[in-house]
Protein: GTPase
Organism: Conexivisphaera calida
Amino acid sequence: MGMHVVFSVGTAGSGKSLLTSALREWLEEKGWGVYIANLDPGARNLPYEPDADIRSIIDINELMEKHGLGPNGALILAVDMAAARLHEVLQDIDEASPDYLLVDTPGQMEPFVYRPSGPLIVEQLPGTSKVMLFLMDGWLVSNPLNYVSIQLLAASVRLRFPVPFVQLLTKADLIEDQVDRVMSWSSRPSELEDAISSSSDGEAYLMHRRLLSMLARGGYIEKPIPVSAVTRAGFLSLSSALANILSGGEDLQD
């Protein structure tokens, strides 16, 4: 069937690495061959053992010392270099040809999403089909103002990458009493507007209401899948969504 590529993107702390690790275990339990590529040159401790690792060819500390850069500048340079040297990172994966390649993107999403290197990496990665998971930090977006801001961010990411796009509401196990409320905002924008009204006033209220109206009219408010990398809640729904996109409905649960 060829190799399917799944990218995890989201704000710092949204749980990209944990989800990548848990999804690998889930897919391997179903009998699929799964590799992970770590594209975060600044990662220190990962919850998985990467099969391909940008840190094996790019040392962010060396970049800081050699070019007199701070951590953010070195991260930007490293991600740009990753696009140019991607074939070196993926050498072993090309030979192994797994069923699934899970790509864990940098913790700070800006260098990957908003510089030319990110779209180049997505385009260059070999694979018969690709999908981008956008992780919304469940604890963060339980606030209606944050929810609108992150949905705006999700829309901008969606426009940057011409691949299928799936939103995930992460850390569902930590916000069990709020999941239904957050989920209702995506299908009933009027409830979200009421929540915005209760949480803000003046210019903040007007701005968030206008942003909400723009996103709703454009069809950019997508219903996320609530998931937990700890309890695996929502993984059946996630695997079903991946099956529909990547395999034309081929069941990932078998």
In short: The chain has a mean pLDDT of 92. The domain at 4-246 is CATH 3.40.50.300 (Rossmann fold). Residues 144-160 form the longest helix (17 residues).
